Amino acid sequence: MKKKGILYIVPTPIGNLADMTFRAIEVLKNVALIGAEDTRTSAKLLRHYQIQTPMFSYHKFNERSRVGKVLDKLKNGEDVAIISDAGTPSISDPASIIIKAAIKNDIKVETLPGATAFIPALVSSGLGSERFYFAGFLPEKKSEKDNLLKELINIKDTLIFYEAPHRLIKFLSGLKEVFGNRKVVIARELSKLYETYYRTTIDEVLTNSDMIILKGEFVIIVEGAQEKEYSNAGLLEMLQAELDKDKSRKDAIKKVMEKTGVSKNRIYDLALKL
C-alpha cells in the first residue's frame, strides 16, 4: 500500500519576519506544494527565506473547492503545507476544512508550533492569563453578535477578540451595551515597529476615541466577569424572599447561589441564622 503524504499546518510571522522557526522553513522547503491564503503576500516570505516550493491559492472563498486537489496530492504520497498571511492557520483563518478531510481520509496532520497573535497580546496585557476564552472575530449579523456576547457575559475568564481597525469603536460600543464598562487592553501591530498596548477601559476609549491609532491589526483583551460583592444582610434578605415563596431551605440556598455566584458554604451558614 502506497504511503500517504503529511498535511503540515505551518504558522507564519504576524509581522516580524525573524519570528519564522527553523523547522517551519525546512518544512516549506521540502513539501511538494504550499497552499497560501494570499500567494502575493506569501511570496515575500518565501523569497526572504529562499523557499522555491510551488504555491497555490487556498483561502476562505475557495477552501472547499481546493480540498480535492490537496487530498489527491496527499494520497499520492506527497506532503502539502498550508499557511495563512500571518499566524497559525485555522485560528480565525482557513484550514479547518482540509484538516477535517485529511483526518477522515486517515492522513497525518502535523501542526507546527509558532506565531499567533493572541498569545503575546494576552501575556502582555496584565489581565488574568491562567484561564482565557478565545472568541476571535464576532459574527457580522448584529443578532448573532449580541447572542454570542450574552453567552459570554458571565464568563470569569479573560476574553480575547480580534477586530479590524475601522470597526473597533463599533465593536467596543457593542461590548459596552452587553457587558457594561470593563478593563480592556487593545494590542496593536504586534511584533512590528509600532507595536502598541492601550491598557484602559471600554468607557475611556468610547469617550476619547482619538487615543487609539486606528491602523494595523488589533487584538482586544477584555476583563472577565467580576464577582459582585454581596453583604450578609443582602444575602439574608434574598434567602428570606425565597423561603417566603414556600421553598425549602435547600432550594432557597441553590437559588441564591445561582443568582449571586456566592459560595454554597457562605450562603448555608447564613441560612442557619434564619
Fold blueprint:
Layout: E1 6-9, H1 22-30, E2 33-36, H2 39-48, E3 55-57, H3 63-75, E4 80-83, H4 96-104, E5 108-111, H5 118-125, E6 132-136, H6 142-152, E7 158-163, H7 168-179, E8 183-188, E9 196-201, H8 202-207, E10 218-222, H9 232-243, H10 249-260, H11 264-271
Parallel strand pairs: 1-4, 1-5, 2-3, 2-4, 6-7
Antiparallel strand pairs: 7-10, 8-9, 8-10
Could you describe the 3D structure shown?
With 274 residues, the protein is α/β, with parallel strands linked by helices. The chain has 3 domains: 6-111, Tetrapyrrole methylase, N-terminal domain (Cobalt-precorrin-4 Transmethylase, domain 1); 118-222, Methyltransferase, Cobalt-precorrin-4 Transmethylase, Domain 2 (2-Layer Sandwich), CATH 3.30.950; 232-271, no CATH class. The chain has 11 helices and 10 strands. It has a 5-stranded parallel beta sheet with strand order 3-2-4-1-5. It is elongated, with a radius of gyration of 25 Å. The mean pLDDT is 93.
Short description:
This protein is α/β, with parallel strands linked by helices.
Helix content percent band: 40-55%
In round numbers, the mean pLDDT is 93
User: Beta-strand percentage?
Assistant: 15-25%
Number of domains: 3
Sequence of secondary-structure elements: EHEHEHEHEHEHEHEEHEHHH
End-to-end CA span: 75 Å
**Uncertain segments:** none
Task: Provide a count of the helices.
Answer: 11
Envelope shape: elongated
Can you tell me the CATH superfamily of the largest domain? Tetrapyrrole methylase, N-terminal domain
**Strand count:** 10
Write the CATH architecture name of the largest domain: 3-Layer(aba) Sandwich
Q: What strand line-up does the widest sheet have?
A: 3-2-4-1-5
What is Rg? 25 Å
- CATH C-level of the largest domain: Alpha Beta
CATH-derived topology of the largest domain: Cobalt-precorrin-4 Transmethylase, domain 1
